[in-house]
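Changelog-adjacent note: as of this version, every example in the card shows the full chain rather than a window. The one below runs 256 residues end to end.
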Amino acid sequence: MKLKTLSAVLGAALFTAAFSATTLASDHAEHGHDVHWGYAGHEGPEYWGDLKADFATCKTGQKQSPVNLSNMQQADLEPIKFHYQASNMGIINNGHTIQANFDKGSYIEVDGIRFYLLQVHFHTPSENHIQGHSYPMEAHFVHKSADGQLAVVAVMIREGDKDNFIQKIWNHMPEHAGPAHAVEGVKFNAMEFLPASKGYYKFSGSLTTPPCTEGVRWLVMKNAAYASHDQVAQFTKVIGHNNRPVQPLHGRTIQQ
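Full-length structure tokens:
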């Protein structure tokens, strides 16, 4: 696999170092030997808020993610307008997840705002639950608006048929943590993965990794996608379990 510098990959990598909704929010700190966090032991989620002052929101925040989506309220949500297109692939194993970066050009429109697609990454088992139900895996498509607002389209993943979109990423999955790099000659399109029915749940939440910054729009697809047992197992073998436990709603409503 050839490595090359792409402005789109670099731009996505720089964004994720500061803003990624559940992956590289503290990648700079990790590689700068500042503070380490993880999903088990004394670096696990229950300790994140104590590891560093900048992570305090992980403990004190009132709008934290993930959540158990339940007691949904009818809100007549407008459809999400998806404008995804084929993209070159950048990929990274940051030690916390496998992430694929997109070229500029794909975006969604929701609440009258255009959010540009930056990357997709994965968690196993799922971070969000729906009506108390956990899924084998969850995909997070991370978007950012021109003024810096974040929106995450979350897709639950059931075990079933092998998924071609996931396999394109898995074919180039780095087994060890390292910098982002471009994948030569591979095109992928997020529309290939989204469920045919685009109904969704909506709530206000946070990044699900340190620093757990709040103010993130969460758009959770009602219908799940599929991945094979072997695809889930391959991810788990490389990354392990990487899900933050569900957080209290603190009076938030889940709209549908």
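Structural remarks: The CA atoms of residues 45 and 159 lie 26 Å apart.
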